[in-house]
Design a protein that fits this description.
heterodimer; A: mainly alpha; two-stranded antiparallel sheet; 10 helices; 69% helix; flat; B: alpha/beta; four-stranded antiparallel β-sheet; 11 helices; 10 strands
């Protein structure tokens, strides 16, 4: 299961989306997160869905792969759906069996909100799938640069982000490795009563923590040994370049926003 | 307990862009009591093979027979615990798996998972800690207060205390000093003989393989490149050298003598003692002429 997770993973390719400036991608994601809330009927949600699917196909990452990687999150989406289905008691009554009832508004909201949630996850996955962690942090650092004036530690924040992103796959691999080692010692992670399964987490978590602390210390030493002393006066090897494609993608998103505003009810 | 791999294939992350063929068409027989060494470069698939030996991985094609149990791609396996108790794996850097408050508890963890009583587990812990060359006092310490080498031994003791029939070692001596390496390998060899275990050793070290194993499998790019007894494997070292694999020093030395003096020894010697005898014999023979 672990090896199928796609959070924070980068799929190398040469698609349009891959070649975009990370700054424009970050801006698009940020704007997308905002405009998702404009949609409030089938047409506007449809537009959003089409846009998202379009971005996926432009990124050339196989759709099936994204879906299978998001399986753990699909449960969360489903949970959202059910929550709304059961708890919203507005509109027409659609179905009733004893204490259990489903209302029209509940169904509508459930579908819309879980769809919204799902689209957000898809878009952010596209960002991480097509942008290396380094690019993301470079982009963020550059976008947040003005905040330096108010003494906001932009560089440190970017560094923290890139380190945590960088170590997600490592941690996943390590989890997998320790799970295997403990499985070989007779731990059963995947079946048995819930009490035993919770207990089974301990032999996994403790080694993970111990190793993470060790790794953090090693990393700090390695960085200092190579002369790292914060962001001041630090030059950049990778230069960001804003191109026509970035501008046009932003304009395109602007058009989508206009359409959403136009068609919302 | 016999283990046999039959035309095993394994793909990591099948059906994703990261899909990678790790091993293909691997057939290896490990009859009870064998000491088998699996050798290969990093990425040759040896660790993948190893994880099939107690059903941590299920083959994507072919089948693995462990004792009377069969593991194949499409079969849902229940009760893998039996297999895991009988096949103990010492992973690479096993010290990473320690987690308990005391060494004793950590060693007892494995056996108790397999339903052994607390008293019996503690008895086994005492035996195991001595087997790995540590004193009983260490049992009450925290595993995180120990040195790297001691942690390694404690982790190994944790697997030994499960009293497996087959013991699988993934580079058990990586990162240890030469003395530690020799002690640990000698210990495994002694155990192998004493308890009539089957032992599978995955290693980079040709020296260890030739010294301890009675069968060697050489993996190359996910396939079995060659298998046989150490004598068979090292009798034609040229192929191995072409693969960039190390050949034991003794064998290299013997080859050098044979080339320099245009002679051929009657056998491929795997230990310095044997080679010395051969050379002595040759010299005596020379005098008689």
């Amino acid at each position: 299961m672990m090896e199928k997770m796609i959070f924070g993973r980068y799929v190398p390719a040469h698609s349009l989306i891959h070649r975009m400036d990370p700054r424009s991608k970050l801006m698009i994601i940020f704007l997308f997160v905002c405009i998702v809330f404009i949609a409030n009927n089938s047409l506007t949600y449809g537009l959003l869905a089409i846009y998202t699917l379009g971005m996926i196909s432009l990124s050339k990452v196989p759709f099936r792969f994204i879906i299978s990687g998001l399986k753990p999150v699909l449960w969360l989406v489903l949970f959202t759906l059910l929550l709304h289905l059961f708890l919203t008691k507005e509109g027409e009554l659609l179905f009733q069996a004893g204490w259990f009832s489903i209302y029209e508004e509940g169904l509508r909201q459930g579908i819309f909100i879980s769809l919204r949630f799902f689209l957000l996850i898809l878009m952010t996955s596209i960002l991480t799938l097509t942008t290396t962690p380094i690019e993301i942090t470079d982009g963020l650092e550059s976008l947040l640069h003005p905040l330096n004036k108010v003494k906001f530690p932009v560089h440190e924040l970017a560094l923290m982000m890139s380190i945590s992103l960088r170590f997600i796959p490592t941690l996943m691999q390590e989890t997998d490795k320790i799970m295997k080692a403990q499985t070989a010692r007779g731990v059963d992670f995947s079946s048995g009563p819930i009490k035993d399964r919770v207990k089974a987490i301990i032999p996994l978590l403790i080694p993970l923590f111990v190793n993470s602390f060790k790794r953090a210390e090693e990393l700090a030493t390695a960085m200092e040994a190579r002369g790292y002393r914060g962001g001041e006066g630090r030059t950049k090897y990778r230069q960001l370049s804003w191109g026509l494609k970035d501008t046009s993608m932003l304009i395109f998103l602007g058009i989508l926003t206009a359409l959403l505003v136009l068609f919302r009810t | 307990m016999d283990i046999s791999l039959q035309k095993v294939e394994y793909r990591y992350q099948a059906n994703t862009p990261f899909e990678r063929l790790a091993i293909i068409d691997v057939s290896i027989d490990i009859p009870s009591g064998t000491f088998l060494a699996i050798i290969g470069h990093t990425g040759s698939g040896k660790s993948t093979v190893l994880q099939h030996l107690n059903a941590l991985l299920k083959p994507t094609a072919g089948k693995v027979v462990i004792g009377d149990k069969e593991v194949t791609a499409d079969k849902k396996q229940k009760n893998l615990k039996d297999i895991r108790q009988k096949v103990g794996i010492v992973f690479q850097f096993p010290e990473h798996q320690l987690f308990e408050e005391t060494v004793e508890k950590d060693i007892c963890f494995g056996p108790m998972n397999f339903g052994v009583s607390m008293e019996e587990a503690q008895r086994r812990a005492k035996v195991a800690i001595k087997q790995v060359g540590l004193s009983e006092e260490i049992l009450s310490k925290s595993p995180f207060d120990l040195s790297g080498g001691q942690m390694r031994r404690v982790a190994i003791a944790g697997v030994l205390a499960m009293e497996p029939d087959v013991i699988v070692l993934d580079e058990p001596t990586a990162g240890l000093d030469p003395r530690g390496r020799k002690e640990i390998m000698d210990m495994f060899h002694a155990l192998h003989k004493e308890r009539e275990l089957s032992t599978v050793l995955v290693t980079h070290s040709m020296e260890d393989a030739s010294k301890y194993a009675d069968h060697i499998v050489i993996m190359q790019k996910g396939e079995v490149y060659k298998k046989g007894t150490p004598e068979e494997i090292f009798s034609s070292p040229e192929g191995l050298m072409q693969l960039g694999l190390d050949v034991p020093e003794v064998v290299r030395f013997q080859k050098k003598i044979e080339e320099t003096f245009h002679i051929k020894f009657s056998q491929t010697c795997l230990t310095a003692e044997l080679l010395t005898e051969e050379i002595a014999l040759l010299l005596k023979g020379g005098e008689q002429k």
